[in-house]
Amino acid sequence: MAMVEIRDLQKVYDGGFEALKSVSLDIQEGEILALLGPNGAGKTTLISAVCGITLPTAGRIRVGGHDVIDDYRAARNLVGLVPQEINLEPFEKVINTVRFSRGLFGKPRDDAFIEQVLRKLSLWDKKDSPIRALSGGMKRRVLIAKALSHEPRVLFLDEPTAGVDVELRRDMWETVAELKRDGVTIILTTHYIEEAEAIADRVGVINRGQILLVEEKSSLMTRMGQKELRVDLAEPLTAVPDALSEFDLALDDGGQTLVFAYDTAADRSGIARLMTALSGAGVAVRDVHTRQNSLEDIFVGLVSKQEDAA
Ligand SMILES: Nc1ncnc2c1ncn2[C@@H]1O[C@H](COP(=O)(O)OP(=O)(O)OP(=O)(O)O)[C@@H](O)[C@H]1O
Predict the structure, then answer these.
(1) 310 CA to middle of ligand 1, Å?
(2) Measured in angstroms, how far is the CA atom of residue 166 from the centroid of ligand 1?
(3) Which PANTHER family match (predicted)?
(4) Is 157 exposed, middle or buried (0-12, 13-18, 19+ CB in 10 A)?
(5) pLDDT confidence bin for 145, thresholds 50/70/90
């Protein structure tokens, strides 16, 4: 059973805006899923629906097998949410803020657990500081501590590193990796492709309220490992010559360019053999250049394809 099950989720806001269009997604226990999407894609709406903050227009969501509407309390108890906005009480001490969050979930006071959470987030020596005395990065950590205070099994992080400096971003990634080691299921939204590359097990791309792709990061990385050699021809071709059929070739630019896809991880790319074969087949070459696919290309390509179709 998936830890989070989202089926045909639709959200139409008052005023008629359709922020989610039939989203279905399964999130497995213990995985880190990064949801990548531009501004306004529907990421926060999706998270809010799972956390029971936004009421879906249609569809069904289960967390740990509990329906988020019919069985709200059981589902909500399993979920921790780190919101995008910093919404902390400035004069409250760090430790009280975190204790209070635990209490809101009806959990008995457990100072040993709160200490463990604060230590994990390097907040223990700040436990008696008022929130307003903390740096922005530390405040974000307090948001995570609050979200973890009631021992959730699933943690949603809504753009955890927006506006955070590079060093702190790396710290945050390490924290997320540690939570995963503790068995917490993590869903984070981000604009940063490098963030998805750094920590996710799976990457989902969302745009205009639709999931365009969900794929293991490792298979995306394999695709990213694909490079293209583009061979500009002296004379255009109408078809790839039979003599070159052993190569993975396609024609582009109206037959003016031969595109050869090869794997950067392979021992031999086949480029030298291709060049020999081209000359053997009497195909004259004007220029060659290479192009690397990145996660960014895949992302931009998917999003722009959808924009074109709209
Ligand atoms: N309460 C609301 N009423 C009407 N429209 C809303 C409401 N909340 C969000 N929207 C719209 O729904 C769309 C999706 O918003 P959402 O906040 O889910 O996107 P997002 O992917 O989280 O974006 P960002 O990366 O900018 O946070 C946006 O066009 C937004 O303007």
Answers:
(1) 19
(2) 27
(3) ABC TRANSPORTER ATP-BINDING PROTEIN
(4) buried
(5) very high
| Ligand 1 contact via 80 beta carbon (within 6 Å) | no
Helix ranges restricted to H, the chain:
43-50, 72-77, 94-104, 111-120, 136-148, 166-181, 193-199, 217-224, 271-280, 295-309
> If you take atom 29 of ligand 1, which residue's CA is the nearest one?
40
Q: Among 238, 236, 237, 260, which residue's Cα sits nearest to residue 247?
A: 260
Q: How far apart are CA 77 and CA 87, in angstroms?
A: 20
- Contact 61/9 with Cβ under 8 angstroms? yes
Res 310 pLDDT > 80: no
pTM comes to 0.79
CA of 213 to the centre of ligand 1 (A): 20
Q: Give the 3-state secondary structure of residue 211.
A: strand
CATH 3.30.70 boundaries in the chain: 226-292
Report the pLDDT value the prediction gives residue 65, as an integer from 0 to 100. 96
Distance 170 CA to ligand 1 centre (A): 27
DSSP 3-state of 66: strand
Q: Whose CA is nearest to atom 2 of ligand 1?
A: 13
The correct answer on CATH 3.30.70 for the domain covering 226-292 is yes
d(CA 142, CA 167): 17
- Residue 221 pLDDT greater than 80, yes or no: no
Instruction: Name the pLDDT band for 294 (thresholds 50, 70, 90).
Output: low
pLDDT for position 224:
65
Top CATH class of 4-221 equals alpha beta
Residue nearest to atom 27 of ligand 1 (CA): 39
| ipTM rounded to 2 decimals | 0.95
Write the CA distances from 289 to 229, 256, 257, 271, integer angstroms.
6, 14, 11, 12
Q: What is the pLDDT of residue 202?
A: 95
